[in-house]
Structures are given as C-alpha cells and as structure tokens.
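Appendix C: a fully annotated inverse folding record. The material below is reproduced so that readers can follow the format used throughout the book. The structure is listed first as tokens, followed by the designed sequence.
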C-alpha cells in the first residue's frame, strides 16, 4: 500500500530501505498485592535496579565516547532519591512492582515535560528510558537496545539513549519516530552521525510493518511507504548521490575555507556538550565558534560547581587545541530555563530576565563559571563571549567580573573576550563596542526575530523570520564594518551562517568566521571554495540597496 507521511526533518538527507520497527514493552498489568506481599515487591524492585545498573555499566564500556554522557545521566537518575521515594510510596499503597515503577516514572517525567523549556522537555525521555530498562528487568525481558544485522530504516515511537547506544551506525540508513523534536536525543544522534531522520511523524507505526520499504526525504519532511518502482528508483539514486557527495566532502574536510580568488575565512562548529567536540572535528571544524555552556547546567539537578565546569571546559579545549574554542557564558531565559533556580515566570521571557542580565545579577554564580573558563583556557586556545548584551554599560560590568575572576586566580592575562550581537541596540552601537571588545559573534537567530519582531517559533509570522531580509542584512553589514574599522574580527554563530543561500552574501559583507552545526560544515566549505570573493562583494553591495527580500533573491538569478 502506497502512502505519504509527514514529519519534521531532524537531520537532513535521503534514505531508502527496508523498515525495522522498534517494539515497545508490553503494557504493565495494574495489579494490587496483599500487604504481606509488599516486601516481596520491594525486593523485586531492588533486584531490577541492580540489573539496570549492571547493564548501564556494561553499556558504558562498549559504546561510542560521545554517548557516555547520556549513560551517566541515567546513572544519576537511578541514584536520584526522588525516584526511589516515589516508587516506595506506590509500593506502600499495595501496587505491584511494575505498576509502582511505571507510575513513578510517569510522574517524574511528566513534571519535566510540563516545563516550558523545550530542551528540558526532551530530557523527560531520559527518565522514560531508564524506566523502560527497569521494567524490562522486572518482566524478565531482554535489555533495551536495537540489534540489526543488515541496512535498515528504523521506525519507532521514540528512540532513547539505550535503544541507540550500542547501535552500529553503518547499518542504519535513517530513521523516523512518532515523538520527539529537534532537540530530542534521537535528533541529536542523527545529526551527530550524519543520517537522515524525521521526528513527529503522525500515525507512523500504524502505517508500517516490518519489511515494508520506506523512503525518507528529511528536507521535504516526507516519508513514502512502499513507493512505486520508478519513484523508489529515483529516491535510491538521490540517496546514492548524497552518500557519494558526503564521502567527497569528508575527504576535503582538512582543506581551508578559501575562495577561488584567495579570501580565507574560518569554519567553526556550534556545540552543546563535551561529546559534540569529536563530531565537530570529524566534520572538519577549524574551531568551536559557540559552546552553549547552559546545556551543562540543564543536565543537572543543581548548579554545577567550579571544578565540574572546569573539567568539561578543559576537555573540549584540549580536544580542539590548537584550534580556538569560544565559550558563551550562561544563556538561560527565553526558551531555556533552569527549574532549580526557581526564576519568576514572565509574560515575555524573550525580552526579559535572561542571559547576561541574569548573570550580572548573580555575581557569584557568574564568577564561578568565569573562573572555570579561565582555568580551562590554559589547556589550549579559549575565548569568552557574553550573550544578550544591549548596552556598553553591561559589557563593561561583564568585563569587570571577568577581570575579578582572573585576579582571584592570579591570572595576569585574559583570553580574548567578545560579545554576541543579537539585540538590534548592540548592532546600532557596534562602533562603540568595537573599541572595547576583542571580537563580535552575530547571533542571527535572535537578531532576526528582534529586528523583525517575529517569534522564530511562530508559524503565523514565519514569513517575516527570514535570513535575507534587507533590514537584517543592513544591520549585519554595519556590525562587520564597525568591527573591521577597529581592527577586530566578526563571526556568526546563528543558523544563518550555515544557510547555503546566505553564505555568498555573508562572505561578500566581509564575515570572518562562520560557525554552524557540525554536519553543515562540508557543504559550507564546498560553497565557499567555489565562490569568488569579489563577485560576492558586488552581490552584497547590490543586496544592501534592495528594499525587499524578493529583490535580494532576484539578484541571485541575474
């Protein structure tokens, strides 16, 4: 039966192959037990916890290094007294062990899923994942995991760390899930190893059977079930061409990002954790243009201390050395929250108490992070940048705290310190900032939404949130010009930096560093090496005279 399903492209590409459905555990029997049986149920839970711990320890020894942090997170949940107390309370009510565990897992995961922060919402999957492992032990079922011996496309309700940890990525052509979003584990895993993936595919499992043929086009957000002969052949040819292209691109990962007429720029990666550093190098990153340090905070149930942060930062700096690593200081607020800080709710958090505004208000928390970054900087080449800077006064206060942190450590020299240009006020005042900051990094995601007054997550106003809007291009041009006049360099770490349509314009405007998701680097390198800087400069000059995005796009067709 032929049909087409739709989802969200979490990792770009095309794949065709036989379907393997990832089965879930059978439903839990909700049975009560007599009071005298409660100790027996407690012992069953204790044994299941022991088996889960042994499995995780064994898994940790044989999985890829970048997934070990996920296993460590599950070990933390296993030791979390909140989980044990919730299960204990359910057992005391006379619930059978399986019922007690399932209810506890749902309760804790549900509380996390109710949070507004999308990244933390996805972390509820880690709790469910561990719960599945404990339930498998209680039911005497095999441990979670996917075992494949031939190339397949996986279809699942969702894919958890345990499902994918021991997986051979060479046998997974692509996958699709009913649940999940762009920041879910499955999406991150797909981008890390560079395979096509769709998430949020409605009616996926009810539309597929093992052995069906599926064709995934992640860019179009489509999955074709049992496509007809000619259609299938077309997808297979596209998939083969993409694999060939990626192999060719990876061969050139160490080539410099230099235009045909000699203009050299830097290609860097955006990362969110220690495990992302290996993937960045694998895809040919010349450095890290953005380390989102808030993810280290989000993975914890309390603020990470200075040594914990230092160990994570130092690991990345040493792994990338002698390449540069830019640490962004804690950027919470907006769509990213930390429940354990109990920040007050806001009607408009994107314009509220977030990022540097919060850090300046919490100097000890701020300086703890700055000290960890400074200590890590001795292991290689580190830079520090402050997000959400609106005024020169904020920059000076942030720099003063950095100097205080350095003095406390006895450091005589500071690493380069810069700011993110993501608020239009900072872009307008770029000349003043350029006299004092060491570098700029343009955060295009926020800069566009603030300039156009268009929420980047709101489909109703998506026609306004576009990279090539003339107003946005003019702000970017002014920032780059101001920095260069002061002898400073400018990077970009928003999604626009990896947009093939935007790269020629950014190159022509004089952008010095392009930072993007690691898997986008090969394509960006290929584009840059095929371009003439002089032609791009003329294109940019013409684009700055345009009055609409349609006029900008028309320039590409001339």
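Designed amino acids, in order:
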């Amino acid at each position: 039966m032929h049909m087409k399903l739709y989802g969200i492209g979490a990792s770009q590409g095309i794949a065709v192959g036989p379907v393997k459905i990832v089965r879930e555990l059978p439903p839990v029997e909700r049975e009560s037990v007599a009071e005298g049986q409660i100790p027996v149920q407690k012992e069953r839970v204790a044994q299941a916890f022991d088996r889960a711990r042994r499995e995780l320890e064994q898994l940790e020894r044989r999985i890829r290094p970048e997934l070990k942090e996920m296993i460590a997170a599950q070990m933390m949940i296993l030791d979390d007294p909140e989980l044990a107390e919730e299960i204990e309370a359910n057992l005391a009510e006379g619930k059978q062990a399986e019922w007690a565990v399932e209810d506890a897992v749902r309760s804790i995961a549900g509380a996390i899923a109710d949070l507004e922060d999308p990244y933390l919402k996805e972390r509820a999957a880690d709790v469910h994942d561990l719960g599945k492992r404990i339930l498998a032990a209680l039911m005497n079922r095999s441990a979670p995991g996917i075992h494949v011996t031939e190339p397949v496309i996986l279809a699942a309700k969702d894919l958890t760390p345990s499902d994918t940890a021991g997986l051979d990525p060479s046998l997974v052509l692509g996958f699709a899930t009913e649940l999940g979003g762009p920041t879910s584990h499955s999406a991150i895993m797909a981008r890390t190893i560079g395979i096509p993936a769709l998430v949020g595919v409605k009616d996926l499992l009810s539309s597929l059977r093992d052995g069906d043929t599926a064709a995934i086009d992640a860019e179009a957000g489509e999955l074709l079930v049992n496509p007809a002969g000619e259609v299938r052949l077309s997808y297979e040819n596209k998939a083969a061409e993409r694999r060939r292209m990626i192999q060719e691109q990876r061969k050139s990962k160490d080539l410099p990002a230099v235009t045909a007429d000699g203009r050299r720029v830097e290609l860097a990666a955006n990362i969110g954790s220690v495990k992302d550093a290996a993937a960045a190098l694998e895809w040919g990153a010349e450095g890290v243009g953005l380390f989102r340090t808030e993810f280290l905070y989000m993975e914890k149930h309390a603020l990470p201390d200075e040594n914990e942060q230092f160990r994570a930062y130092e690991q990345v700096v040493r792994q990338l050395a002698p390449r540069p690593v830019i640490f962004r200081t804690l950027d919470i607020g907006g769509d990213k929250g930390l429940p354990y800080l109990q920040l007050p709710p806001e009607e408009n958090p994107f314009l509220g108490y977030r990022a540097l505004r919060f850090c300046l208000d919490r100097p000890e928390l701020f300086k703890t992070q700055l000290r960890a970054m400074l200590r890590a900087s001795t292991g290689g080449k580190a830079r520090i940048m402050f997000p959400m800077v609106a005024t020169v006064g904020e920059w000076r206060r942030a720099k003063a705290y950095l100097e205080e942190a350095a003095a406390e450590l006895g450091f005589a020299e500071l690493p380069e310190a810069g700011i993110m240009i993501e608020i239009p006020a900072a872009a307008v005042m770029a000349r003043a900032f350029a006299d004092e900051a060491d570098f700029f990094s343009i955060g295009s995601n926020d800069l566009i939404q603030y300039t156009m007054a268009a929420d980047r997550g709101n489909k109703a106003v998506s026609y306004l949130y576009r990279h090539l809007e003339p107003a946005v291009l003019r702000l970017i041009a002014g920032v780059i010009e101001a920095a260069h006049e002061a002898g400073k360099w400018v990077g970009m770490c928003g999604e626009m930096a990896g947009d093939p349509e935007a790269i020629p314009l950014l190159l022509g405007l004089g952008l010095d560093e392009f930072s993007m998701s690691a898997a986008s680097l090969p394509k960006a390198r290929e584009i840059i090496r095929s371009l003439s800087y002089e032609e791009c400069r003329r294109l940019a000059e013409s684009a700055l005279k345009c009055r609409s995005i349609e006029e900008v796009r028309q320039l590409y067709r001339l």
